[in-house]
Amino acid sequence: MAESSIPWGRRTQQAPALEAMHILWITAGLGCDGDSIAITAATQPSLEDLVLGAIPGLPQVHLHHPVLSYENGDEFLASWFGAAEGRLDPFLLVVEGSIPDERIGGEGYWAAVGVDRETGQPIPTCAWIDRLAPRAWGVVAAGTCAAYGGIHAMEGNPTGCMGLPDYLGWDWRSKWGLPIVCVPGCPVHPDNFMEVLLYLLKQAAGRAPMIPLDENLRPAWLFGQTVHEGCDRAGYYEQGDFAEGAGSHQCIVKLGCWGPVVQCNVGKRGWMAGLGGCPNVGGICIGCTMPGFPDKFMPFSEIPPGAMLSTTAVAMYGKAIRALRRFTQASMNREPERRAGSATRGEAGRLPATP
Ligand code: SF4
Ligand code: SF4
Predict the structure, then answer these.
(1) Which atom of ligand 2 lies at the shortest distance from residue 264's CA?
(2) Which of 10, 144, 212, 298 to pair with 72, CA 20 to 30 A apart?
(3) How many C-beta neighbours within 10 Å does residue 352 have?
C-alpha cells in the first residue's frame, strides 16, 4: 500500500493553539448533497458532538452549512462574505460536489450561490473557492465529487468539472501549510468524514501533528487497506465460494465486486454504527473512493478483468482446502474419546437415540 506522502510528526505553521474554528461548507458544487445527508448519520463523533462542544480539547466550532445552519438568505451569506474579506478567521473550508469549469460556461454559469452585491449577478461556486481558499486554515473535499470529480466528471463531462486538487493544484497548501484533505466516497462515509474533521480540529488545537495523507491526499489511516481485507465475505473468497447470483452469503466478486483492489475501510467499519457496508450486505464494491471512479470500474456488475484469473486460481485451492476443513470440522464436532460412555451423552459423545 502507498506510503504516506506527508510524514507523521510534521507540524503546521500554527504557533498558537486555536480556540475557535468556523467551518464554511459549500454544497454548491455539482453533486447531490448526499455527503451532507450521510454525515448527519455519523456517531464517531456526531456533528452535534462537535457543534455543541461535547468533546473536550477542541476549538469551539461554528458551523456554516446551507442546510444545517439556523441562518438563511443574506444572514447566512454574511459569514461567507466576512470570510472572503478577512473578517471571519480562522475557518475550515469544506467543499462538497464537483467543481465545474466556468471558462466553458458561456454566458451562463454551471453552479453558483448568493448574489454579488455590486453586480447583482450570481456568484459562481468557483469564485467562492477562489475567494475563500487563500484565506482558509485548511480545505477539505467531502466526497468523491469534490475530491476527484466523481460521477459528474466521467467520460463526456460537458461542464469540464473536476476535483479540488485538479482545480487548486495537487501541491496546493493553505496559508497555514495544510495540503488539501480529500475524504472520498460516494457518498462519503459518515464516520470517516467526522473522524477527519475531529483530527483537523485537534491539529488546530495543537494536539495532533500534521494529518498523514497518501499520494491521493486521502487520510492514510482510513484508506490504507482494501475493502477485501476487511470484508465479512473474505473467508468465502479464500475458500473459492463464489456467488452466482444475488441473495447469496458467498463472495460476490463474480458479480462485479472490485473490493480486492479498492482502498476503503467500509468492509471493516460498516456504514452506520458499525452496521452494513457495501459487500457485507450484498452490494458489489464499485470503487467509489478511488480517483479512477467511475470510468475505470465500468461497466458495473461485470466480473473485474483481474478477478477472472484470481478466482480461477483460488477456486482450485479453495476446493481442496474446503474438503480438508470439512474433514477436520467433522472431527472437531465430536467430543474427545476419553469422554465416551458418560451417563448423559452415551457412547462416543453422541446423544442416546430418542426412544
Ligand atoms: S465480496 Fe468483494 S470485498 Fe468481499 S470478499 Fe468478495 S471480492 Fe472481496
Ligand atoms: S465498499 Fe466500495 S462501493 Fe462501498 S463505499 Fe467503499 S469503495 Fe465505495
Answers:
(1) 6
(2) 144
(3) 9
Average pLDDT in the 123-136 region?
97
- d(CA 210, CA 7) in angstroms, rounded, equals 8
- Give the number of whichever ligand sits closest to the CA of residue 233: 1
* Any domain includes 278: yes
Is 38 within the bounds of a domain? yes
How far apart CA 79 and CA 24 sit, in angstroms, is: 8
Residue nearest to atom 7 of ligand 1 (CA): 253
Residue 166 structural domain: 20-204
pLDDT in tens, 133-176: 999 999 999 999 999 999 999 999 999 999 999 999 999 999 99
Residue 227 alpha carbon, nearest atom of ligand 1: 3
Residue at 143 is within a domain: yes
Q: How many residues does the chain have?
A: 355
The pTM assigned to this predicted structure is 0.90
Q: Which ligand is nearest to the CA of 218?
A: 2
Residue 212 domain flag: no
**126 and 264 co-located in one domain:** no
Neighbours of 349 (CB within 10 A): 16
Ligand 2 pocket test, pick from 286, 297, 300, 301 with the greatest ligand atom count within 8 Å of Cβ, gives 286
